[in-house]
Design goal:
Elements: H1 2-43, H2 48-71, H3 79-82, H4 87-123, H5 136-158
Helix pairs in contact: 1-2, 1-5, 2-5, 4-5
Length: 159
């Protein structure tokens, strides 16, 4: 059991570091958005790359912080019902929820995403927009987010 708890703590540390780090991507995305707006209004020019970079940054923050949010127990739930139960019952609800909903969903997503992402990486997929960015890193972020969510699910089950 000690080894499993050590694994859980390691997963928690990784997701804590990633979650806190990617929160800065929101600020960067806001700065990119503001800079793009200023350039567009003052110089009457724009670039699809700036717009795509914004959604890459927001997407990365959302996807990579999902596991951290799970670790912090901050995902949405019906707290009116959940909060009325004892701590022990809440733990059982969480455990059943992880086993019955979270883990099957994440495993299906990983199964479906892997070939989709690999095809994108192998083909060097790029945006169809003029001046757009490469797309495969964004798709790889989706896969990475679900891998982190799976690992955090394992950690929560261990705890």
């Amino acid at each position: 059991m000690g080894g499993m708890l050590a694994l859980s703590r390691a997963i928690d540390r990784v997701n804590e570091l990633i979650g806190k780090s990617v929160s800065w991507l929101i600020l960067i995305a806001v700065l990119v958005s503001a800079t793009n707006a200023i350039i567009r209004k003052t110089l009457n020019t724009s670039s699809n790359a700036w717009l795509e970079l914004q959604w890459y940054l927001y997407g990365a923050a959302f996807l990579l912080a999902a596991a951290y949010t799970l670790k912090q127990n901050e995902h949405i739930r019906i707290d009116i019902v959940y909060g009325a139960f004892s701590r022990r019952v809440q733990h059982w609800i969480d455990l059943l929820g992880h086993f019955l909903f979270l883990m099957p969903f994440v495993l299906v997503m990983l199964y479906l995403l892997f070939p989709y992402v690999m095809l994108s990486v192998r083909s060097g997929e790029v945006s169809t927009n003029s001046g757009g960015l490469i797309i495969w890193p964004a798709k790889a972020l989706i896969l990475a987010g679900f891998v982190l969510l799976f690992l955090q699910g394992v950690s929560e089950i261990i705890k």
